[in-house]
Design brief:
With 612 residues, the chain is of the alpha/beta class. It has three domains: 239 residues, Glutamine Phosphoribosylpyrophosphate, subunit 1, domain 1 (4-Layer Sandwich); 205 residues, Rossmann fold; 140 residues, Rossmann fold (3-Layer(aba) Sandwich). 36% of the residues lie in helices and 23% in strands. It contains 20 helices and 27 strands. Strands 3-2-4-1-10-9-11-15 form an eight-stranded antiparallel β-sheet, covered by helices on one side. Helix 3 packs across helix 4, helix 10 packs parallel to helix 14 and helix 16 crosses helix 20. The chain binds 2-deoxy-2-amino glucitol-6-phosphate (AGP). The site of 2-deoxy-2-amino glucitol-6-phosphate (AGP) has 15 residues, from helix 10.
Length: 612
């Protein structure tokens, strides 16, 4: 997500922090800030919205900030719009603490309310500011920097990589990590923290990766690392020999592959703050139960992969809410004279929040009186600003043109909406609801299991990358999943591919199946499995080579008819597209790799399509 850099040494900190942040610019950000402890024992903090250059110019390349201990941050907004107040570092009210943070503090609202009742004033809308304010609150009781950090970490829930300065301790910085990457860099008489090794390469290649629950105290002389019980521990050092381009991709050859592997963490960020005590709680949605009950039409409007999320969403939302859901391509919706009025809910899905067709459809629906609920990744983007309500996906910056983690998190958020609406409308069976919530909580782990088998897919792709045409077939949710698998294949490998509802093949398309045609048969959903088996037999009889995808429990049955079988773990049907999409992303990726394609920047495509 955001970028973190910290420095403790004998040199002026700010120029080093700014240089480190510039090496993290590729990750995307909307604002930046730095803070140092001055020789007078005060914290000097500067931040600015926009490009890092704005901050750089403001502080004359760092020359304006006097101090040898400091922290720097590039922010990708999650809580609160991108502006300089919401950007990091955040200070406590008395200016004693400055904090940078990557991740999400899930219980920040409750802590904030508590601190406000204690008379503490907040400046920003962020979850991070509670860390700075809580530190001050505890420090005023014990006057011990390290102990105060320990108390804060026990109080907060969620994911964090933290860099913390205390004006009373001008020789040190404290770092802490849980579920968000943070590493320590060891220099000569100077030490560092960073969210990403890229930031440190000109200064040191001797690093330690922090593990969950660990804290570290950094001084010029060295770095002490502590376990979750604050006992000192020894850590293994790593020597980084990657070049800058490999380091930006975290050691992966392409951003797309890195982002595919980031899906379990991205899913956790999208799901876990929204499940409490076995229930879906959408605190970040303004819609009331009364409004939800008042809608007589639900539309999902989006483009490309976001539209494919809508296709899965239609099946799931209709099942969970027993309301009619219509999915529309944004580019068609706006010119279709849609039947939309004040009793319509229009769910708009967009990773970038800037897709022109989607934005135009949103405006059209809004002008007709609809309520707009957006599912967006980029905080403060046009779609997020213009919608009545926005649920963020928290996928983090997505750099590869072909979307992967944004698709997965959009799907997860749509399922959360389906469950929340289903409960409000009394339409979902309570047993099914509880099972769905439990399985949603397991989803990141299940996604991790699918990723652990990526070698099988790579092996298959090594022998199957030269087909001139690929057909993806499936029924119901598997049909919707196939749309995305097929798009991934064509956009990055340039192989012609089509996605068909299996039952529709016989109405024409089956004439294209001949000896050696590759058919990717998606048979993950239990309810329609037997029908899919028949479809596999049907295309095999016409000479197709069949790569099938099903669940572990159905592997043997599928293996009796398909040429090759890939599997995902069993879970409820509702969530299978979330797992099934991973092997399809990987297959497209490895095929494109074999064909020597420009995977992260496919020809003719742009990450954000801001033209009609
Ligand atoms: C998918 O891999 C694409 N690059 C593309 O279809 C994309 O999903 C579409 O352009 C919509 O973008 P958005 O989600 O940013 O609105």
């Amino acid at each position: 997500m955001c970028g973190i850099v910290g420095f403790v040494g004998a040199r002026q900190a700010a120029p080093i922090l700014l240089d480190g942040l510039s090496r993290l610019e590729y990750r995307g950000y909307d604002s930046a800030g730095v803070a140092v402890v001055t020789p007078q024992g005060e914290i000097d903090l500067r931040k600015a919205k926009g490009r890092l250059q704005v901050l750089n110019d403001m502080v004359h390349g760092g020359a304006d900030l006097d101090g040898c201990v400091g922290i720097g941050h590039t922010r990708w907004a999650t809580h609160g719009v991108p502006n300089s107040t919401n950007s990091h570092p955040h200070m406590s009210e008395d200016g004693r603490f400055a904090v940078i943070h990557n991740g999400i503090i899930e219980n920040y609202a409750e802590i904030k309310e508590y601190l406000i009742r204690q008379g503490i004033h907040f400046r920003s809308e962020t979850d991070t500011e509670v860390v700075a304010q809580l530190l001050e609150f505890y420090y005023n009781k014990c006057h011990d920097f390290f102990r105060s950090v320990g108390r804060v970490l026990r109080r907060i829930k969620g994911a964090y990589a933290l860099g913390i300065l205390c004006a009373d301790c001008p020789d040190r910085m404290i770092a802490a990590r849980k579920d968000t990457p943070l590493l320590l860099g060891f220099g000569d008489g100077e030490n560092f923290i960073a969210s990403d090794v890229t930031a440190l390469l000109p200064y040191t290649r001797d690093v330690v990766y922090m593990d969950d629950g660990e804290t570290a105290i950094l001084t010029r002389e060295g770095i002490e690392v502590f376990d979750p019980l604050q006992q000192p521990i020894e850590k293994e050092h790593h020597h980084i020999d990657w070049d800058v381009s490999a380091a930006e991709k975290g050691g992966y050859p392409h951003f797309m592959l890195k982002e595919i592997f980031e899906q379990p963490d991205a899913l956790s960020r999208a799901i876990s703050p929204r499940i409490r005590d076995g229930r879906v709680v959408l605190d970040d949605m303004k819609l009331t139960a009364e409004q939800i009950r008042s809608f007589d039409r639900i539309y999902i409007v989006a483009c490309g992969s976001s539209y494919h999320v809508g296709m899965v969403g239609k099946y799931n939302l209709e099942h969970l809410t027993r309301r009619n859901v219509e999915v529309c391509l944004a580019s068609e919706f706006r010119y279709s004279d849609p039947i939309v009025d004040a009793r319509s809910l229009v769910i708009v899905i967009s990773q970038s929040g800037e897709t022109l067709d989607t934005l135009a459809a949103l405006r059209e629906a809004k002008a007709r009186g609809a309520y707009i609920l957006a599912i967006v990744n980029v905080v403060g983007s046009s779609v997020a600003r213009e919608a009545d309500d926005t649920l963020y996906t928290f996928a983090g910056p997505e750099i590869a043109v072909a979307t992967t983690k944004a698709y997965s998190t959009q799907l997860a958020v749509l399922n959360l909406i389906g469950l929340a609406f289903g409960e409000t409308l009394g339409a979902v069976d309570p047993t099914e609801y509880h099972e769905a919530v439990t399985e949603l909580e397991r989803l990141p782990e299940l996604a991790r299991q699918v990723l652990s088998r990526c070698d099988d897919i790579q092996e298959y792709a090594a022998a199957n990358f030269n087909h001139s045409s690929v057909f993806y077939i499936g029924r119901n949710l598997d049909y919707a999943l196939g749309l995305e698998g097929s798009l991934k294949m064509k956009e990055i490998s340039y192989i012609h591919s089509e996605s068909y509802a299996s039952g529709e093949l016989k109405h024409g398309t089956i004439s294209l199946i001949e000896d050696g045609t590759l058919v990717v048969a998606l048979g993950t959903c239990g309810r329609l499995f037997d029908k899919m088996i028949s479809n596999v037999i049907e295309v095999k009889a016409r000479g197709a080579e069949v790569l099938a995808l099903t669940t572990e429990s159905r592997r043997d049955a599928m293996a009796r008819v398909a040429s090759t079988v890939l599997t995902v773990p069993d879970t409820i049907d509702l969530l299978l597209p979330n797992l099934g999409v991973i092997p399809l992303q990987l297959y497209a990726y490895y095929v494109a790799l074999q064909r020597g394609c420009d995977i992260d920047k496919p020809r003719n495509l742009a990450k954000s399509v801001t033209v009609e």
